[in-house]
Amino acid sequence: MTVVHDTVNVGTETAAVLKAQTEQMSRIVNELDSIHFSIKKASQLVKEIGRQVATDKCIMALLFLIVIGVIAIIIVKLVNPNNKDIRDIPGLAPPAMSRRLLWNPS
């Protein structure tokens, strides 16, 4: 009878250990799902930030080209102010010769 009693006790203990291990595995699976979701979100954020950086770099490159173009036009106008191929830039053109008409009452 003691053998049966011992076997039942061992079976009960084994069942309790298996239940605890099953619950632990369930918690681990839930944590893994949470980690997977976090990694997926982080990956999406990294992609979005990468797109924004690429857009910012393109905008900066275009602004740089515009600034270089304006500087080049200013230099060309300063070196050769009579060049008619380039329109005068407002504010940079040499002052126009003004004709003053003298009023002569006689």
Automatic annotation (TrEMBL):
Lineage top rank: taxon: Eukaryota
Name under which the protein is recorded: Uncharacterized protein
